[in-house]
Amino acid sequence: MGNICIVWLILITQMIMVTCNNENYVPAVIVFGDSSVDSGNNNMISTFLKSNFRPYGRDIDGGRPTGRFSNGRIPPDFISEAFGIKSLIPAYLDPAYTIDDFVTGVCFASAGTGYDNATSAILNVIPLWKEVEFYKEYQDKLKAHIGEEKSIEIISEALYIISLGTNDFLGNYYGFTTLRFRYTISQYQDYLIGIAENFIRQLYSLGARKLAITGLIPMGCLPLERAINIFGGFHRCYEKYNIVALEFNVKLENMISKLNKELPQLKALSANVYDLFNDIITRPSFYGIEEVEKACCSTGTIEMSYLCNKMNLMTCKDASKYMFWDAFHPTEKTNRIISNYLIPKLLAAFG
């Protein structure tokens, strides 16, 4: 009987050690991208595109607006929590945080940016190349703080979340620019894919190995695009943009597959949520959502950033009934649904 107890004790100890190892396998979550993952970097730069005021953040951290473009948390927060790290990923430029806070996770994302440098210039936000420069600076600070050996381990084992592309199309190519005279939509997609590939290769050269790269959502179904879809029918999705998103996602996934074969030890995962987004739009009641055409904030059609503020008395009382918080960004509930869809895939690949 005593021997059996000892065997069980050894097995339980081994199980605990395996569990602990799995929890620590991803020691940090590092984020690059746009407003879908920006946790507050735009607060610290000179741009109109901010969300550091109510009602943004009304359902997070005691109702404190953090700079997240939502009523609450965003996907990197939920993903980090699922890996047993932390429930909020801090923004790199936020002076309230130090390198000690960034050891287990940091966000370099900037709302309004894209793969194309020209996209970031439209609203004077942080371009992707600058996000990379901040990342290099972070690496130097990390090495000085915890030593080179430990910092190399964190850099190589961290999960990198990359979410970009929507602004390149909606804010740049289809915006008030001359790009459409220089590129067909297919050519511009290829141009962005080339930038994305170079970006991933650069991160790889800097030590990153575990990457989750999102594609585009059905961007023609955003409340803003529905509202301005005059010719296609008021409040109907602009299907042309959805087709562009699908085409881009295929090219992105092909590029990711190619790099996984070319770069030793790279584990890049396509975190495509297009079909999930489309499913929520098609059958919202299955997800406990009542409204997918209009956003929670004010009229729910064109408001975003400063147009979505506490003076708008029409803002909904319960954001959990809505798919979108403002005319461009999901509610915390939708962000949680997205995260719950991705987390099993991420845990299986990296956990």
TrEMBL record:
EC number: 3.1.1.3
Signal peptide: 1-20
Entry's Gene Ontology molecular function annotations: triacylglycerol lipase activity
Keyword Chaperone attached: no
Keywords from the named record: Hydrolase, Signal
Annotated InterPro entries: GDSL (IPR001087), GDSL_lipolytic_enzyme (IPR050592), SGNH_hydro_sf (IPR036514), SGNH_plant_lipase-like (IPR035669)
Gene3D superfamilies xref list: SGNH hydrolase (3.40.50.1110)
Enzyme class, UniProt record, top EC level: hydrolase
Keyword Hydrolase carried by entry: yes
A UniProt-annotated Pfam family: Lipase_GDSL
Tree of life domain: Eukaryota
Stated family: Belongs to the 'GDSL' lipolytic enzyme family.
Identification of the protein by name: GDSL-like lipase/acylhydrolase
Organism: Medicago truncatula (Barrel medic)
